[in-house]
Design brief:
about 400 residues; 16 helices; about 75% helix; about 0% strand
Length: about 400
């Protein structure tokens, strides 16, 4: 393993960490942002929906840009923009400033998420073993730190800019310096070069065939529907349905984040030992079981246990979905990752309103069965996560014996 790859992995991990911190600082201080700018409850969903919509636009634009610009360069420029936009959200005092800062944040986040995962996929190919979960584990660690800093800011009644400025002052120079060691899939021999024109389910022009990518897009959407259910509804569910105290109602999401971190920290070992298909199947079953426990829980502690299971199960799905896209399209993995990343935001947009609407019209216990069923669908598509035969050299993951000969796309 070359020193170039080691430095590339460390610098990319720092990028994932910084993004975890920044995103958590934004979403966990939404009430404070609403108060600062005087946003009505009716208008707030518009602002909240604008960020993932624009992030999807940014991800689509990234798919086109990486045909001319290396993903490392996009990441090098988009991450500082995200951090500065976060500071703009905290420092402004007019609605137009908030709208502009959130628009910039959303567009840059789309490019950032896509380019980070592109580099992660190419690095995993160069390593020849599963490392993708480790990047997302670091993202979860950053999210925990960001949420903790947000709690401290709320506890001490700090102005938003006072909470955000020290974080930006620390992370901005760190990611700018760290970006010197990003490794692209096209950076040369032994450092993850992708085989141009490598076989795979691609169109005549070298683009990604959406039909082949569709199972992974569905898995990504369902995973984020489950994730948004926990992040947006766990506190309300525990307090209103299971009768917990207000303080206890804040615990499930924190536990969910911690279990996500633990599951991802250990997940790469599971993939290396048992294979991606087995890990995805187990993750889907555990997450579905967690939602089932939540739906029938007799009390708050049982509900908290269910959300804990959800975290342990869901945490492996998203990183493995990105990795599977890279294996499925070895000659066009950047385009595949960018297109797949859009469904991250689709799931986020659909999940919270869907559960809320079902909860109001029917019951919140019944609404929890929806992400349970959707996550179970992942079990059906688990074969899409199988390693691809290493026909081309250059660091593709080695397939298990049972996987050889199933065809180039593994679907």
């Amino acid at each position: 393993m070359t020193e170039v790859l080691r430095r590339g992995r460390a610098s990319l991990a720092l990028s994932f960490f910084a993004q975890g911190v920044a995103f958590a600082l934004l979403v966990t201080r939404i009430p404070a942002i609403q108060d600062r700018y005087g946003i009505s409850d009716a208008l707030l969903p518009v602002f909240l929906a604008a960020v993932p919509i624009l992030a999807g636009v940014g991800s689509v634009a990234t798919e086109r840009l990486v045909k001319r610009i290396p993903p490392s360069r996009l990441l090098r420029w988009s991450q500082p923009v995200v951090l500065l936009a976060l500071l703009g959200v905290g420092a402004g005092d007019r609605m137009v400033v908030l709208g502009s800062a959130l628009a910039l944040f959303g567009l840059a986040v789309g490019a950032l998420d896509a380019s980070m995962n592109m580099l992660g996929v190419s690095l995993q190919r160069a390593y020849g073993r599963s490392i993708m979960l480790s990047f997302h584990a670091v993202y979860s660690l950053g999210g925990i730190l960001g949420a903790s800093l947000a709690w401290a800011g709320a506890h001490w009644h700090l102005e938003l800019w006072v909470s955000y400025l020290p974080v930006v002052l620390v992370l901005l120079p760190a990611v700018v310096v760290g970006s010197r060691w990003y490794v692209d899939g096209r950076d040369g021999e032994g450092a993850g070069r992708e085989a141009v024109g490598a076989a795979g389910p691609v169109e005549g022009g070298g683009g990604v065939v959406f039909k082949a990518l569709l199972p992974l897009c569905l898995v990504m959407t369902f995973a984020y529907i489950g994730d948004s259910t926990v992040s947006n509804w766990s506190a309300k569910y525990l307090q209103d349905v299971l009768g917990s105290s207000e303080q206890l109602a804040t615990v499930p999401y924190n536990v969910y984040m911690v279990t996500t971190l633990l599951g991802r920290a250990l997940g790469d070992l599971g993939v290396r030992r048992f294979g991606a298909v087995a890990v995805v199947r187990v993750g889907a079953l555990v997450a579905a079981a967690g939602f089932a426990v939540v739906a029938v829980a007799p009390g708050a502690w049982a509900g908290m246990g269910g959300f804990t299971l959800v975290g342990l199960g869901l945490c492996v799905l998203v990183p493995q979905t990105f990795a599977a896209a890279g294996r499925l399209f070895p000659g066009a993995s950047d385009a595949a990752v960018a297109r797949l990343n859009v469904f991250n935001y689709v799931g986020f947009l659909v999940g919270s309103p869907l559960v809320g609407a079902l909860g109001d019209a029917w019951s919140y216990r019944g609404a929890m069965a929806v992400p349970m069923v959707l996550v179970l669908v992942t079990f059906v598509y688990a074969r899409s996560f199988a390693p691809q035969p290493d026909r081309y050299g250059g660091g593709h993951e080695r397939p298990r014996t049972a996987d050889v000969g199933r065809g180039s796309n593994g679907v």
